User: Which sequence fits this backbone?
């Protein structure tokens, strides 16, 4: 009897089967497509869109389960099955500090950062929260090698410089669509709300073989959140003692089981004229801005992608003399620069319902600007349509991508340079082949063909090589060519403000460039669990047919022509990430570069380009106080500045300058963060060491200027330096020290 009972018990244990259920999340949000491995039984599965997974028919015993996902630290747990009941497990993966994020910008397809043959830098929202800003334009100030450049002391419009190259050389994408370009490069960047941000990917150096014109200096891809992974509700608002108010709201909703949507709203207001430098001009442009973004995701039975997104943006901004009111708009009594911007965008992606992996992406933007600069009106309209079809195909060790694109651009303004509407069509074909010889060696070959009726056929080849020396050392080599078609009035703000006359000496040819860069990535793990990541890039870019505005030949003119010679940007840049077990994190960056032009055997430093720059973000967590401390800042070397003549008393070169910030974040309460801090701790402004910044601020309409027989400005008692009104002597913000206070609420 005892023997029979023992056999029955043994058989029960042998045939008892349990079901393992689990949930994988990251930062409290469901994490789909995580790899789940039950090591002993060699059973595998992946988590679904809600982060859940199930493994059935697991016998009694002790097991080890391993969870992994690209971009996150893997987790392993041991568990025991005692009977046939369910076993429930949960995993909350942490972001990987080993630089192994998923990137798409370098090759137009998702790939691990470590596996990409093209070096791509990735910045998550947590990076930008270390120094909260009202828009992405300002947020980029702490990215190494990237500098938001203000172009006007009055209206504070700006563009993004990458490795010393001006804004028009930088292509800004949203979800891979080139919708921020031309007119909106100058006026539209400040309207991208932070609430929609999932991450920003940055490629430094030409990417024209994939993205076409404008991606000559580099590109910035702003990738928006997937509604599936976004919080149900989020709100982030802060106020500064200058009177700036910023509000970001994000709302997720499920229309039904197959449709989810994400709505992002940003509102910014600054209505408090301040003139600390006593020139009777506003130090900071007054702004009233709203941006509404909505993204729809459609769940298809085939699990193929289908998403639509739209954004509406409106901004009313003005700067000028302190007594300016709207009644003076466009007149010559009181000087003001007033810009009304209306803009809407539509973009989408649809994966074709066929066996092959083919994706159709599209975007359309309409940008309407109504502006006056003193008594000079600038009325401009721009429409850009873009469609692209790609085919992603794997054959043996070849990862192929084929694509075709069509771009439509309409531009019209009221200036003498635009006699009739400018309508441009650019059709493109491109292909790339990523060849994996083994786990350690990859080569990427790419070519793009563009046709434009004004400039004919343009070829842009590309070559990239990645050598994975080992898991901790990676070497990348990239080379390629680029091209850029110029549109003067959409990118040269100085042509519209002040008294300089724009002179175009010839029909401008497209700029061409040749680039090489070498990138080295090293990961160091210490015995006590600390991590150090080092990424260094050296680059060289040579431009022919370069179009560089000439401010020097005649102080009353901006002269445009193709450079009879060449321009060069070269340098070295390094980022170092430290993650310590004691709660200390540091991100340090430094760049040294030489940006010059050579004409008639004479080489000169290009205007408004610094020789060196540095950035840092130092964070420390004090667990006992539920407090995070973030110290961020940047440092810029001297830049050559646009003077108005030999008598101009302002400094020809800017000093070395720095903007530094500190923030304290208290996060004891569930779903709530309270933060406060100080921006521009050193209270630095560009007027330091200068008698004035804006030339002839007392006579903005040049009513009291006397001219000589050759049209040159005469030095008089009222105008001893022989200057005209000009606000383009600008290299940094006029806004001094200020405190801020904010609250974040997130409902997951």
Assistant:
């Amino acid at each position: 009897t005892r023997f029979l009972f023992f056999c029955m018990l043994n058989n029960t244990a042998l045939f008892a089967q349990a079901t393992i259920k689990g949930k994988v999340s990251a930062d409290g949000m469901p994490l789909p497509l995580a790899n789940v491995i039950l090591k002993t039984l060699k059973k595998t599965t992946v988590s679904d869109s809600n982060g859940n997974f199930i493994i059935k028919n697991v016998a009694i015993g002790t097991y080890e389960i391993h969870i992994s996902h690209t971009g996150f630290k893997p987790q392993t747990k041991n568990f025991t099955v005692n009977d046939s009941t369910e076993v429930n497990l949960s995993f909350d993966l942490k972001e990987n500090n080993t630089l192994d994020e998923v990137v798409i910008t370098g090759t137009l397809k998702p790939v691990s950062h470590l596996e990409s043959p093209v070096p791509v830098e990735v910045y998550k929202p947590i990076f930008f929260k270390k120094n909260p800003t009202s828009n992405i334009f300002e947020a980029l100030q702490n990215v190494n090698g990237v500098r938001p450049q203000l172009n006007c002391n009055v209206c504070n419009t700006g563009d993004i410089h990458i490795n010393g190259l001006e804004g028009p050389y930088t292509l800004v994408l949203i979800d891979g669509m080139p919708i921020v370009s031309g007119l909106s490069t100058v006026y539209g960047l400040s309207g991208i709300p932070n609430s929609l941000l999932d991450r920003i990917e940055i490629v430094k150096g030409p990417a024209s073989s994939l993205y076409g014109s404008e991606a000559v200096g580099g590109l910035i891809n702003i990738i928006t959140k997937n509604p599936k992974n976004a919080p149900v509700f989020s709100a982030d608002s802060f106020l500064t003692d200058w009177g700036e108010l910023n509000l970001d709201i994000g709302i997720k909703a499920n229309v039904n089981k197959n449709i989810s949507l994400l709505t992002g709203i940003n509102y910014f207001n600054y209505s408090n004229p301040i003139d600390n430098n006593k020139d009777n001009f506003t130090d900071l442009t007054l702004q009233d801005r709203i941006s509404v973004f909505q993204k729809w995701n459609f769940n298809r039975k085939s699990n193929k992608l289908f998403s639509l997104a739209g954004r509406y943006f409106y901004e009313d901004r003005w700067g000028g003399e302190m007594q300016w009111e709207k009644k003076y708009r466009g007149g010559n009594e009181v000087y003001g620069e007033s810009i009304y911007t209306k803009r809407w965008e539509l973009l989408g992606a649809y994966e074709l319902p066929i066996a092959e992996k083919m994706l159709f992406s599209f975007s359309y933007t309409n940008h309407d600007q109504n502006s006056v600069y003193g008594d000079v009106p600038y009325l401009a309209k721009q429409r850009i349509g873009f469609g692209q079809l790609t085919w992603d195909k794997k054959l043996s060790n070849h990862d192929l991508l084929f694509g075709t694109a069509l771009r439509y651009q309409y531009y019209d303004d009221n200036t003498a340079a635009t006699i009739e509407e400018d309508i441009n069509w650019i059709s493109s074909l491109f292909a790339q082949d990523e060849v994996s010889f083994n786990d350690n060696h990859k080569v990427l070959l790419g070519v793009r063909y563009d046709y434009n009726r004004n400039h004919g056929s343009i070829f842009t080849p590309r070559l990239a090589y990645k050598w994975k020396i080992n898991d901790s050392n990676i070497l990348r080599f990239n080379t390629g060519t680029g091209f850029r078609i110029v549109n003067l009035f959409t990118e040269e703000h100085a042509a519209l403000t002040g008294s300089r006359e724009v002179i175009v000496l010839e029909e401008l040819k497209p700029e061409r460039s040749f680039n090489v860069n070498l990138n080295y990535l090293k990961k160091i793990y210490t015995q006590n669990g600390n991590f150090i990541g080092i990424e260094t890039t050296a680059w060289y870019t040579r431009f022919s047919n370069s179009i560089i505005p000439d401010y020097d030949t005649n102080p009353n003119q901006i002269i445009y022509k193709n450079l009879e010679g060449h321009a060069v940007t070269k340098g070295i840049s390094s980022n170092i990430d430290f993650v310590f077990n004691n709660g200390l994190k540091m991100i340090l960056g430094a760049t040294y570069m030489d940006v010059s032009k050579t004409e008639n055997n004479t080489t000169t430093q290009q205007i408004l380009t610094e020789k060196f720059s540095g950035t840092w973000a130092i964070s420390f967590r004090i667990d006992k106080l539920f407090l995070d401390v973030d110290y961020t800042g940047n440092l810029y070397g001297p830049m050559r500045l646009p003077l108005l003549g030999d008598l101009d008393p302002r400094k020809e070169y800017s000093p070395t300058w720095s903007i530094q910030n500190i923030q304290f974040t208290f996060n004891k309460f569930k779903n709530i963060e309270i933060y406060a801090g100080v921006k521009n701790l050193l209270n630095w402004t560009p007027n330091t060491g200068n008698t004035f910044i804006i030339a002839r601020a007392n006579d903005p309409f040049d009513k009291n200027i006397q001219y000589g027989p050759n049209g040159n400005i005469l030095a008089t008692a009222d105008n001893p330096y022989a200057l005209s009104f000009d606000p383009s002597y600008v290299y940094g913000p006029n806004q001094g020290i200020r405190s801020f206070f904010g609250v974040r609420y997130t409902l997951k």
Q: What stands out?
A: Confidence is low (pLDDT under 50) at residues 8-14. Residues 343 and 679 are 30 Å apart (CA to CA).
